[in-house]
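User: Before I run my own analysis I want an independent prediction to cross-check against. Here's the chain; please return only the structure tokens and, at the end, one sentence I can use as a sanity check.
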Amino acid sequence: MKTANEQRFLDSSGRVEQWPSHQDGKLLVLAYLASKFDPDNTYTEQEVNDLLKEWHTFDDWPLLRRELFDRGFVDRNRDGTNYHLRTIPTPTSDLVLAMPSVVRDAPIAVGWLAGDEGRETLRLMGNTDEHNKPSKLSEEQERIRGFITDSEQTTWMMIYQGTPVGAIWVDRKSTKYLPAPSPHMMIGDPAVRGKGLGEAALRTVIGLLRAENRYDRIHTRRLISNQGAARLQAKLGFTSEGHPYKDEDGLDWQNVSLDLN
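Assistant: Structure tokens:
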């Protein structure tokens, strides 16, 4: 089923002209409005109101401001001051995790998957030659809309020195190959590989899952040939779970898991 599209709720000037009735539409509209905030700025409540008035037409900025906060797109102080886009700090000071944004992330993701480096990125993630192809902007926009609306997956973009460099996500529903929850990660920008960003992001997500106090163990997997992933998983305390196996595409995988207790 095709993901909802925030464009249907916008007028010709890009202003939100109706509040969606369905959950997916609401999330996409909020993500669109969040893209209008400067990630380096903090805002007073009045400044947030003024920004929202500029980008919607139905005169209910208190609703939009409250929804942006309640659904985790923005944070604020307890006294209602200093609104700012929500980010999650990591052990690396220049790296934060942030909610996906169609406007910000889709064009950059197209670049990640272009050329020989893009082919190698997808190969390491387990994409066969048949599916290992460059991506179009419309495809990445649709993918990121799915990140925003998928209730069975939680996704964060990895923002390094102000620029998206990858994504990390947690599948909340068990699959044929892995029990839930299962974290996965893609470093899209090859220029930042080897800087420890993947380790910092994964440590942060492990901490978030531990803090939820819902799970005793987390699970993930790697291609047998991906020695970089093997070293990182071992460093973080993951241990092999079961025997290596082939999937339906003939790729060789090893499942690993980590005790959260």
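Sanity check: Residues 157 and 167 are 4 Å apart (CA to CA).
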